[in-house]
# Entry
Amino acid sequence: MRQLFYLILYQPIFNLLVLIYQYTPGHDLGVSIILLTVLFKLVLYPLTAKSLKIQRQMQLIQPQINALQQKYKGQKELLSKELMELYKREKVNPFSSCLPLLIQLPFLIAVYQVFITGLKPGELTGLYAFVQNPGPLNAIAFGFLDLAQPKNWILAGLAGLAQFWQAKMTVTKKPVVHGGGAKDEDMAAAMSKQMLYLMPAMTVFISYSLPTGLALYWLAMTLLTVGQQYLMLRKTAPAVPPAVAVR
# Structure
């Protein structure tokens, strides 16, 4: 299994990064990582688009979910049944948006391995025959940023802010209802609310602990996702009525 991971993910990503590095003006590793991220984003575009589409659908039916929560307050079984019928009627699976993210996880692990083991000082190993060995890669990006060192608070903080920005775009505010409303949120809404703060905090912690090159990759990937998300939300922005009737 480990050998399969090496052959299918690690080695191709490692060779692609070295190849980009060779043809990048000035052999700037930071620019190479950004270009690699753009290529990954293009490859993973369909998966990300599917995940964002589901999140958008959940935003649009949130008023109906809120109305059901108020109508069946304190009746968890009936609420669950009505929510399932709503999801079925609207053809929305609130948990399927996690699947594309899980599929992307092996890519992130492979990139992590590339930065941890593949870019160590010394002679590069595992290159394909058609990829010329450039010797030790210069880890200084943009003339000042050491991508081989961890504990870069600035880049870690930027990565966390970008993650928060991305999560914030998918959160729908619950309307204020006079006379009280349902206090319990459905599982999907609760997960979305937790992700809004949990993921940015985890991003800062992980980015600070790992090589700065991985934090740069994470920041670039998140910003590209924010751009894709913005375009999708702008394209699919139908007016949502302020009040939604519940049968």
